Amino acid sequence: MTIFLEVVLPVLLVFSLGFVLERKSKLDIKPISTLAIYIMTPCLVFQNFYHTSIDVQIFYMLLIALILLLTLVTLNKIIAYFMKIPSDRETGFVLSTAFMNAGNYGAPIILFAFGQEGFQFAVMFMVIQSILMNSFGVYFATKMKESMRYAVKMVLTMPAIWALVVAAIAKTIPFELPLALERTTSMVSEAIIPTVMLILGMQLAKIPLSGFEWKGITYASIMRLFVSPLIAYGLTLLFPVDPLLANVIIVLAAMPSAANIVMFAVQFEAEPKLVSSITLVTTIISIFSITALLVLL
Question: Is residue 167 scored above 80 in pLDDT?
Answer without folding.
Answer: yes
